[in-house]
Amino acid sequence: MLIWGGSNRPEHVGGVLGDGALYSPHSNTWRPMNTVGAPSGRVAGVSVWTGTDWIIWGGKTTSGTLPVTGALFNPQSNTWRPMSAANAPAGRFFATAVWTGSSMIIWGGEGAAGVRNDGAIYHPATDSWTTIATAGAPTPRLVHTAVWSGSEMIIWGGGNPFTSSGAIYSPSSDQWRSMPDAPVAGRGAHSALWTGSGMLIFAGWGGQNYKDLLLFQTS
After folding, report:
1. Which residue from 176, 148, 142, 136 is spatially nearest to 160, judged by alpha carbons?
2. Sheet strands (E) in the chain
3. What is the rounded distance in angstroms from the CA atom of residue 64 to the CA atom of residue 172?
4. Nearest partner of 205 among 219, 185, 177, 178, judged by Cα
5. What is the pLDDT along the chain (219 residues), one digit of tens a residue?
6. How far apart are the first and last CA of the chain?
């Protein structure tokens, strides 16, 4: 298990951290991450596991800035390597990210100009970014969820205001397709996962705490 960054104060006010550690369940031990080359301390960024590296990007710093920077951490060598910021999307926090098997897709979140409904794809093999289409994308939101189905990214829920809507993005065609609104109250900060054939959502907050469970089938 890898942990990194975050805040040690309530509501992320100050206390933003730029360190981390690796935990081994086999030996029940911790070891610190190398900080040389690590990103600046931040909260509410995005991260994905590629199978060999951990990618960390975006978030919010102690001063409130929204960096467009990130880095890849390799636990085998305990080293970081920086990500290109060329053509990176606008800085944001409370966005989502999924790993496709070859690239990371980030979407949504809150930026300097407000809540967003755009995103981009990061390609580790070429250390490059490409933007994704906004036509047909969900309305702007943050604290939503995203899952990867094996071929598509499903965005659902989130706030601005809280919604039960979403949409499905195909990186192969760079197109969005609609999905029906869920028959539950709109919410954010819920949990979502891909089962292999559908998306499960659970709980969340939308003016009150929810504890319901819902399954969305893509076909």
Report:
1. 142
2. 2-4, 20-24, 29-32, 46-49, 54-57, 70-74, 79-82, 96-99, 104-107, 110-111, 114-115, 119-123, 128-131, 145-148, 153-156, 166-170, 175-178, 191-194, 198-205, 209-217
3. 35
4. 185
5. 999 999 887 655 567 999 999 999 999 999 999 999 999 999 999 999 999 999 999 999 988 899 999 999 999 999 999 999 999 999 999 999 999 999 999 999 999 999 999 999 999 999 999 999 999 999 999 999 999 999 999 999 999 999 999 999 999 999 999 999 999 999 999 999 999 999 999 999 999 999 999 999 987
6. 34
- Which amino acid, one-letter code, is at 194? W
Tokens of 197: 């054939």
128 neighbors 86 (Cβ within 8 angstroms): yes
- CB 188, CB 203: distance < 8 Å: no
Distance (Å, rounded) from C-alpha 61 to C-alpha 69? 12
